[in-house]
Amino acid sequence: MTFLTYTMFLCLVCMAFSCQESMDLELDLLPRPLIIEYPETRLKNMTEELTMQCTSWRVAVESNNLNPWKTIPMECADYIEEYMSGQAYNFDLETVSKEARVYAKSLELGDDGMDVWIFDIDETLLSNLPYYSDHGFGLEVFDCVQFDRWVVEGEATVIESSLKLYEEVSWLGFQIILLTGRSEDKRNVTVTNLINAGYQNWDKLILRGDDDQGKSAIEFKSEKRKEIIEEGYRIIGNSGDQWSDLMGTSVASRSFKLSNPMYHIP
């Protein structure tokens, strides 16, 4: 290799290294995405805080301390789904059922057969979880048309803890009256659904008639309880998943509220 050739080779190598350094410098100057990595403990604390907030919201629902609401909070969607689909919901239902059975067995009923236990139907005797699992467990605004389509399918499932209570109070000698916000035109499918779920031998099934349309649940059920009392019955117990099933006028001697954080009926 001649001296001239060697010199040219060195020049080319130097130019190549100079270009690479320039490119590296330009890349270093380019804007880079901001990546924030939270420590694992902080992520855990954030999740725990949200769980506590959603638990607090659910407790406020069950204790009737919230103003009327239409949907569950968006940020609590996963929490409510996990609660309704998991063991916690069933434990809560079983606790209410157990306390109601203890109360019922502690009473001495009259000999006239006029002691009554009232049951609501939806989310009290029958579960509509298959429907609500397709509608965000309360994340969507309630659609009565879609829900009625589900009702006529007659596929609501039994709430086992409520069936235990139902059978207990029936065996003890209570008259059982079912008081529901469902419309009168759903009577046949409701009866069939209840029987298929294991409920039998109720004394009355009261649904909304034409004159009851447009009334709030608390107004409708208060009126019907008043009529029951006027017939000479004594309302000893009442089970429902909504406060509007239990409150108002002509209330039971003792009422039992089942958990339901998916929807609110005034």
UniProtKB/TrEMBL annotation:
SUPFAM superfamilies: HAD-like
Signal peptide positions (record): 1-18
Family listed: Belongs to the APS1/VSP family.
NCBIfam families tied to this protein: plant-AP (TIGR01675)
Chain segments annotated as coiled-coil in the UniProt record: none
Gene3D superfamilies the UniProt entry points to: HAD superfamily/HAD-like
Keyword S-adenosyl-L-methionine: no
Any one GO MF annotation of this record: acid phosphatase activity
Keyword Signal (UniProt): yes
Keyword terms of this UniProt record: Glycoprotein, Signal
Matching Pfam families: Acid_phosphat_B (PF03767)
PANTHER family: ACID PHOSPHATASE-LIKE PROTEIN (PTHR31284)
Source organism of the structure: Lactuca sativa
Name of the protein in question: Acid phosphatase
